[in-house]
Amino acid sequence: MKKALCVLFTLIMILSVNACLADEAGLYGEWYAEELGLVTALTLNTDGSYTVRYITETEPSVTGSWLAKDGFIFLAGNEAGILNPIGDVLRLEPDGLFFFRDKPEFYTPGSPVADAAPGAFDGYWVSGYVEVNGIPVEAALLDDDTDLYIEGCKAALGGGLFGDVIVDMEASDGALTLGDASASVTMQMQEDGFLRLTVSGAEETMVIYMVSSSAGSGEEA
Fold it and tell me: Of 30, 98, 122, 135, whose CB has the highest number of CB atoms within 10 Å?
């Protein structure tokens, strides 16, 4: 009886170790997190090292070591922290950033329509995406409320960015433009039906991808 119990205990220990190894093996490879257009790729290597790459920035990769222990993943090095496995997701503590297996997909802007007539811009437009770090992020995530009402070359620019003004735009090379020495506004129609709004100032350029909306279509500019 005692011998049978020893054999059973040994089998349980082997199965437990194998289960741990299987769980750890499932951690190897690439994990992706996305926050406001910044994509972070975390690679957990089989030799106990890791790398972190910021896909939407030009910063170099950082490296370190990792250890799976007591149900958590401990990171040491430049990106020290603790990863908490929750199902098929890794949560970085205490930041709350979630890492997934699938690489995030983003809206890809269509090409500008080179010969768009002024009438192609007519209608009411609301913010759909705002470009952050070179990647279009959903406007709702950034609380962007930019909206436009366009009729011919006259436009009503609204939302926090413009503060509700009515302006006369100039039609040129398939685009509507407005500018002075300090800033410029350019509107281009895209092949995917979005309106690309580019606002360039002395220090930065903001790009917003506007979507056509039936709401407000009765407004007069």
Answer: 135
CATH number of 118-213: 2.40.128.20
Q: What is the CATH number of domain 2-99?
A: 2.40.128.300
Q: Read off the pLDDT of residues 98-147 as tens digits, 9 standing for 90 and up.
A: 999 998 888 999 999 999 998 999 999 999 999 987 889 889 888 999 99
Task: Round to whole Å and give the CA distance between 71 and 173.
Answer: 60
Q: Domain segments of the chain: what residues?
A: 2-99, 118-213
Question: Tens of pLDDT along 49-87?
Answer: 999 888 766 667 888 999 999 999 999 987 778 999 998
Regarding pTM above 0.70, the answer is no
- How many whole angstroms separate alpha carbon 54 and alpha carbon 42? 9
Q: What is the per-residue burial (b if ≥16 Cβ within 10 Å, else e) of 102-111? A: eeeebeebee
Written as six digits, the tokens of 165 are 């003004």
Distance CA 73, CA 81 (A): 8
